[in-house]
Here is the input.
Amino acid sequence: MTFQKPRQFHIHGLTLEGRSFRPSDWAERLAGAMSSFRPGGGGGIGAYIGYSPYCVPQVVDGVKCVLVNEALRDIEPMAWEFVMNFARDNQLRVSEFTPP
Here is the structure.
């Protein structure tokens, strides 16, 4: 059996029309909402202190993004759907990310 690494996706802070998404802290808010989803089933009392490794805000080429790891789907399918629906509902660009 071959192990396949989970894919990763960038949700870009640009709409399909090329406009910047607002509010300006949207990436931090989205990643913060996902902060409790961590390896091992939870973060316990300190989960609010940092971001989940499955949903991390970043800046790519000067544009705010959220890097979402597909492993989130295995941990909590509803959280994965929430994040991906957020991108779709707000017409944000999504691209697969392949680490160098």
The longest helix spans residues 77-89. The chain has a mean pLDDT of 89.
